[in-house]
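A further point concerns the way the authors explain their paired sequence and structure data. An entry of this sort, consisting of the sequence and the corresponding backbone structure tokens, reads as follows:
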Amino acid sequence: ETNDFVIKEIDCEPIIRSVIRQYATFFIRKKILIEVDNIKVKVLSDEKWLRFVIEQILSNALKYTNEGKIKISFEDEKTLVISDTGIGI
């Protein structure tokens, strides 16, 4: 049985930018701004699952934000924050 997780040091910026590009048409269609700040952070994680989590949170932020912006940043290089001006869930 193989382990599905490969924990290693991962640079978050390329993953975050890739996910943003993946959802670019939704940002454009809904006229939602994206603000990215302080994402040059390395974390210990599994790359596939980190990408999946970021995709899910960004997808939900887009789904429930009809105007304004979504912001992605790190607080204190430990906490990834994805905030939006949506209705809240």
Notes: The first strand starts at residue 7 and ends at 11.
